[in-house]
Amino acid sequence: MSATRALQDDPIAPEDNPILQGNFAPVAEEVTVRDLEVDGVIPAELQGTLLRDGPNPIAPGPGHHWFAGDGMVHGIAIRDGAATIYRNRWVRTARVQELLGLPAGRISPHQPMQQGSGSVNVIGHGNRILALPEVGLPWELDEDLNTVGQHDFDGALRSNMTAHPKIDPASGELVFFGYDFGPVSLRYHVADRAGNLTRTVDIDKPIPTMMHDFGVTATRVVFMDLPVAFDMDMAMEGSGLPFRWRDDMPARLGLLPRDATKDDVQWLEIDPCYVYHPLNAHDDGEHIIFDVVRHDRTFAKGQRQGGGETRLERWTIDPARERVLAEVISDRGQEFPRVNPRVECRPHRFGYAVDFAMATGPGSLLKHDLENRTTIVHDVGAAGAASEGVFVPVGSGEDEGYVLSVVYDGDTNKSHVRIIDAQDFAAPPVAKIQLPQRVPFGFHGNWLAATSNRGESR
Q: Domain total for the chain?
């Protein structure tokens, strides 16, 4: 049975659920191990910590979904050519305290009605490490990945925060949004380099939708209001993910100036689809270039675990003519697209992704040259499965750096960190860091440079 087989209407028992088998299965222990074994030579320029986040469910019930589960953050520290430490820690929520007895982090008095476990993404900004859920407030962690508590920007944030904020490499600003299920179903926010919330805009939107990610350019943001809608009946029945695909809803993009102080969104309709993750967005004169991984649909009946096949598309948005031109860049199935963080919100040539087929799950790593429209594969082996590739820049060239990925080996049931020279992408990795325990399939991660201000890390 495929690990990404869609769940049917009858909730599947945990012991039969493919999302709880193999490397989807959680690990049971928190560990701290120093002086990790390394095959090859770690580049001296790499000084920092690779962080990975994902669900690690403690007591999953019938019908468990991969997108749900208690959050766990993994960290691999690299210093002076050595892998100095690996540690993994649950995000200490009240549920984790109840089930495992691990003391919960501080709870904000401004906690919104919905609060996630912090299982989607982990970033550094404003000298803080934040584990991010789909909805709710972020969870602040210390450098040892212990949970400090919910972070509400000194009381200024009292609603949900996306797991996919963008850090502008020029200004250091954290640009983000939050979707909700009440009268205000979308809010736009900006925090300055130091982590102070400086802007909040309430946006009128008639139907609450699952808005997982968005695009940010140097001057504008792009919201994706796509036909995966909140379903109150599903919520009342106790569904952990009360969303469903609706054929009767339009798909549209919303354009807003980054410096907006009020709801001034321009909405443009597009063909129905769903996008979990864009690669990047940037201004092209009055147009916007928006590169995205497009799913035909998701959360449709019989597709609870996936969204059909995917492809990388370039959307050229023309606000004056109110139209969006879609062009296929790669029809290869893929997910978890990333760019060099130094070109976030700016023009880009290269992008990185995981070769991801909905029928089989993650595979090798991809490097796209969007100028020449070519793709290079970094093969992780027939039994290998790569996580999102995190780009760590070490020079001025856009692809001058290393791609770091936690790779699972199905033959050994172990995980390692693969360090790949981005300019020699198809070659064997320059180093492999052997990890002391398996790292389950998760979602997103980032690099925290040891020598840079966290407001500049992604």
A: 1
